[in-house]
Design goal:
This protein is α/β, with parallel strands linked by helices. It folds into 2 domains: 226 residues, TIM Barrel (Alpha-Beta Barrel), CATH 3.20.20.70; 73 residues, no CATH class. It contains 14 helices and 11 strands. The strands form 2 sheets. An 8-stranded parallel β-sheet has the order 1-9-8-6-5-4-3-2. Strand 10 and strand 11 form a beta hairpin. The longest helix has 20 residues.
Length: 313
């Protein structure tokens, strides 16, 4: 299949794996890219020297395109940007910040830039900033999320009507059927996170991967909207946060409960009670840990099969 996303990235399928903290290292990114989709290294949990190592290992593991995701609020972002330029990374996904700051600098170096948004207004601002595409991420998504709580099926048509650049749908997509649904409402491609966290190549802790496959419908909830919205699996830490929010806790009180390295403890080190377990609602549809290549293959084959069955209605 060729469309605006496959042509923009030079990939076979209009699918990219989200650049998730603690889960998206070079092993996952290269495996996804080798399977014909776009793998992404999640730099938000990496020190600069670690990012450089992952980029170099990814280049050694695949000759196909891959990207790096950079949260724009990262404290050492200038170092990350310089490493990306020095190492010749061709595609960058930015998130959690103003794309106006770094897009022109990256574009001057010939880098394709994509920004993650949660509203049509921010999509328009991203287009004005000069990005090549946007990821429109709905309320269902794991990790950091939009405060507006707009669902993916509502968000994609709004963003599609607001901008001329390609739109990648994210949030609640883990298989070919949901991918086709996103295309029907206007997406040019899809970004998938949760399904790839539960992959063999993901750098997430095995205990975290396992609990994803056991998370039931309603097992996640958006929390910490006063600090930065994040969707979490319900555990002891979530219950502490939820109870504090119900009592009207201040930002400082919530930050105190959050503490330091909470996401690392949960997703990377496997503390399923005290850790921050970021994952999407679609985890309720994920029941097996599979190789990334098999995940890509299954999604694409189901997309084609569903497309055919819909055409025959």
């Amino acid at each position: 299949m060729q469309n605006r996303i496959t042509n923009l990235f030079g990939i076979e399928y209009p699918i990219n794996q989200a650049g998730m903290i603690w889960c998206s290292g070079w092993k996952l990114a290269s495996a996804v890219s080798n399977a014909g989709a776009l793998g992404i290294i999640g730099s938000g949990s990496m020190y600069p020297d670690i990012l450089r190592e992952h980029i170099r290992k990814c280049k050694a593991a695949t000759e196909k395109p891959f990207a790096v995701n950079i949260p724009l609020l990262y404290p050492d972002i200038d170092k990350h940007i310089q490493i990306i330029i020095d190492e010749g990374v061709k595609i960058v996904f930015t998130s959690a910040g103003n794309p106006q700051t770094w897009t022109s600098i990256l574009k001057e170096k010939g880098i394709t830039v994509v920004h993650v948004v949660s509203s049509a207004l921010f999509a328009q601002k991203s287009e004005i900033a000069g990005v090549d595409a946007v990821v429109a991420e709905g309320f269902e998504a794991g990790g950091h999320n939009g405060r507006e709580e707009t669902t993916t099926m509502i968000l994609i048509p709004l963003v599609k009507n607001a901008v001329k650049i390609p739109v990648i749908a994210a949030g609640g997509i883990a298989n070919g059927k949901s991918m086709l649904a996103a295309f029907v409402v206007g997406a040019d491609g899809v970004q998938i996170g949760t399904r790839f966290v539960a992959s063999i190549e993901s750098s997430a802790h095995d205990s975290f991967k396992k609990i994803i496959t056991e998370t039931p419908e309603g097992g996640t909830m958006l929390a910490m909207k006063k600090v930065i919205p994040v969707r979490l699996i319900k555990n002891k830490f979530f219950n502490q946060i939820n109870e504090a929010e119900q009592k009207g806790a201040s930002i400082d009180e919530l930050k105190n409960i959050l503490g330091r390295a909470r996401a690392k403890h949960g997703m990377f080190e496997g503390d399923l009670e005290e850790g921050e377990l970021e994952i999407g609602q679609v985890s309720a549809q994920v029941h097996e840990i599979k190789p990334a290549a098999e995940i890509v293959k299954n999604i694409w084959e189901e997309f084609l099969a569903t497309k055919k069955s819909v055409a025959e209605l």
